[in-house]
Structures are given as structure tokens and as C-alpha cells.
Design goal:
mainly alpha; 5 helices; 86% helix; 0% strand; rod-shaped
Length: 179
């Protein structure tokens, strides 16, 4: 049984997401304790969230034009801290998704480049083989055909026969009998 490579990147992202929850809880605790954090970071988003939520609920129930009272500071700080914690988890999760997408795109791009390089190498090899084939075909056409060789052999024997008849020497007869 072949075991594939363990996806270390996915394990790393899962670890980051698991660490983000306690991190969000620490941020919430710090937001509750720090006056600056509470006043400038937690309260404005909490009041805005409360206003949008209440306005939406009022419109759904059919009440229009009613004024919405802002949350008291304690409730707004609590809601702001919760929103901040959830935003932290969301941002970490979104960051992990973006990193995973980027990693996948990089792998895909590398794979396509490898395929393109292999394709180009195959095309080069086919071109080289086509040139070699053309050269071999040209050599084959330049060579005399088998029937032409037979004709030349017959002419050679006729010439030998004529030379032998003309000189009638024993050497010529011996030479023609060897062939």
C-alpha cells in the first residue's frame, strides 16, 4: 500500500486556526480591561453593529422611523470584544484560505511549466527525427536501384566476355570462371 505525502501545509493551517481561538479570547480579555481598547476599538463597531441589527429587526417587524437607543458602555464593550474576537478568527481563517489558494496556484503553475517543457522537448525530438528521416530518404534516393546494379553487372560480364574473346587468353577465362 502506497502512502501519499502528508499535507504538512494543511496541518500547519489547522494549527494556526486552533491557536487563533485562544488568541481571540486573550484579545477579548485585553479589550475588556484596557480603557483605550474599549473606547476606540470596541465601542464604535459594537454601537454600529447594534444600530444595524436593531434597525433591521424593526423594519422586519414593520416599525419604521423609530429611534434606536445606543447600548450602554458595559454591553457595548462586551459586544465589541466579541466582535473583535470573531473578526480575529475570521481574518486568520481567511488568511489561511488565501495562503492555501496561493500555494495551490503555485503548484499548478509549476506543473503546467513542467508539462510545457516536456511538450517542447518532445516537439524538438520529433523535429530532429523528421530531419534525420529526410536525410535517410535523400540517401536512399541517391543510391542506385537494385535493377540498375543488375544491369551494370550484366554489362560488366559482356565487356569481360568481349575482352576474353578478343584476347583468348587463359587468364581471362580463369577470371571469368571464378565469377
Amino acid at each position: 500500500m502506497v502512502v501519499g505525502a502528508f499535507p504538512m501545509a494543511k496541518l500547519f493551517y489547522l494549527g494556526i486556526r486552533q491557536v487563533s481561538k485562544p488568541l481571540a479570547n486573550r484579545i477579548k480579555d485585553a479589550a475588556r480591561r484596557s480603557e483605550f481598547f474599549k473606547t476606540y476599538i470596541c465601542l464604535p463597531p459594537a454601537q454600529l453593529y447594534h444600530w444595524v441589527e436593531m434597525r433591521t429587526k424593526m423594519r422586519i417587524m414593520g416599525f419604521r422611523g423609530t429611534t434606536i437607543k445606543p447600548l450602554n458602555e458595559e454591553a457595548a464593550a462586551e459586544l465589541g470584544a466579541e466582535l473583535l474576537g470573531e473578526a480575529t478568527i475570521f481574518i486568520v481563517g481567511g488568511g489561511c484560505l488565501v495562503l492555501e489558494y496561493w500555494r495551490h496556484q503555485t503548484q499548478q503553475r509549476n506543473k503546467e511549466e513542467e508539462q510545457r517543457a516536456a511538450w517542447n522537448a518532445l516537439q524538438d525530438e520529433v523535429g530532429r527525427l523528421a530531419l534525420a528521416l529526410e536525410a535517410l530518404q535523400a540517401q536512399a534516393q541517391a543510391m542506385p536501384s537494385l535493377s540498375a546494379l543488375e544491369e551494370l553487372r550484366e554489362e560488366l560480364q559482356e565487356v569481360r566476355g568481349q575482352v576474353c574473346n578478343a584476347h583468348c587468353t587463359s587468364k581471362c577465362q580463369a577470371a571469368s570462371s571464378k565469377k
